[in-house]
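Hey L., structure's done. Input below.
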Amino acid sequence: MRRGMLTTTSTVLAVMLIAGCGGAADNATPSRGRTAAPSASPAATPVPDASSAPNPTLPPIRDVTSPPQRPDTGRVDGKTAEAVGVYVFELFPYAYATGDLTEWRALSHPECVFCTQVIAEVEALVALGNRVEGGGTRVKLVPSASSPQGEFTLTGIVDEAPATQRSPTGDALLVTNGDRVTVTLRLTVQGGTWSVREVWVA
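Output:
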């Protein structure tokens, strides 16, 4: 039994980064799939951190087989950043459940390593004919920093439901027991277009 899908993806990513940096991947043991947290931008303006709030109120877990509603991104502000961040973590289980990467690709910055890892994993699932059942998320985020250049950093909590990866014949290949994780998300806005610069999971 493993922890949630976000942690599983982050663990794979951590191992890849260790190997790519010349470390001894065989001897490395990533701590709970954690990737390094981002350093604060010098131009950032800090605001309260959602992850530090006691018992954050989270919405119900939605159906992962239906596409989440894309938020209105007409304004460049913290409220829109929060809506986009929630959308990202709703797209995550949807992509694994359906194999539909259209919106995930549209939001992924070319340099977002976590985004690229998700794309690779979902493409591999589709190629094998496998599918993921469950794994829905409920999300509570707040902007923790912003900059005049249109960059937003959000922190918060994501609850993940249990998930099962199944083969084309229905056999259970991987089971995750769900999790509550702390996340940090960095978004950028260029020419009115929002994109995910990076995701960190702890």
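The two ends are 18 Å apart (CA to CA). Confidence is low (pLDDT under 50) at residues 14-54.

-- N.
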